[in-house]
Amino acid sequence: MSDTDTATSAPIHIPVLLAEVLDALAVRAGGVYVDGTFGAGGYSRAILEAADCQVVGIDRDPAAIQRAAPLLARFPGRLRIIEGRFGDMAELLAANGIGPVDGVALDIGVSSPQIDDPSRGFSFRFDGPLDMRMSLSGPTAADVVNEYAEADIATILWRLGEERMSRRVARAIVAARATARIETTAQLADIIRSVVPRSKKDGIDPATRSFQGLRLHVNDELGELDRGLAGAERVLAPGGRLAVVSFHSLEDRRVKDFLRQRSGSEGAPSRHMPAAHAGPAPSLRLLGRGGVTPGEPELRHNPRARSARLRAAERTTAPAWPIGEAA
After folding, report:
1. Ligand-binding site membership of 41 (annotated)
2. Which domain-ending residue is among 218, 233, 250?
3. Which residue of 115, 224, 244, 301 lies most exposed, with the fewest beta carbons within 10 A?
């Protein structure tokens, strides 16, 4: 199979767990599907090719919106692109007269085009400005490391990056910025590597966890995920499908907990809950348990997929839970 779109001569991005996502969505002719994290358009393209349906792509990254031009030309009248956050999908769809929909796909985290563009500052593999903003607006990662208090930096790296040496890293950052402002990914990565030894167990770069923590903070990615899951629950028609691909434990735990709550699959009620309170009726039905991970053939072609996990559910006829409601 060619990796090039013959109509545009542009490389085709093949997203993680593509076949499994399409299977979970049960794409059908006449359906309306939301690709809440449009990115390079991989899921949107595959959904549009799978059936004579319509897709609404949402992305907060202006560069992703620009990349949609070839797909818009290829699927006239079937693809619609909205610039915005997928956490706001219910409001975005309502404002555009769309809904309810038959499926929502979410690919959580940073996209390949974002990682591979040095000017975006997401990766320490290239030297570039310390930016990390998906929407190109708001405070940058450089603003965080140069202006936040040492204790606040340490908290971000610990909670969002799961960096065990977060206090040591934060101390090194504050010491370095006293001499000169930290402006590039290479500067920050070198500071982190100077105080965090390379792990002999997993071999990952010492800067990996700290960069993850900063990126999640700059883009409020976990808050966005929470809002996006609740938004998907609101926009899905009965029988509609939700498919979520996540790449690390912080994201996957949130997805798993949300789906278990909304499906009534959490087991025995909490001992702190009054016995008479049954809670809202399940708004989702789990499609499988434990999540789906990539097989060896996919991992051979795409090592980035190694940590990916897909979880899926089907919308029931029960009303969406009130915002903030927990099981």
Report:
1. yes
2. 218
3. 301
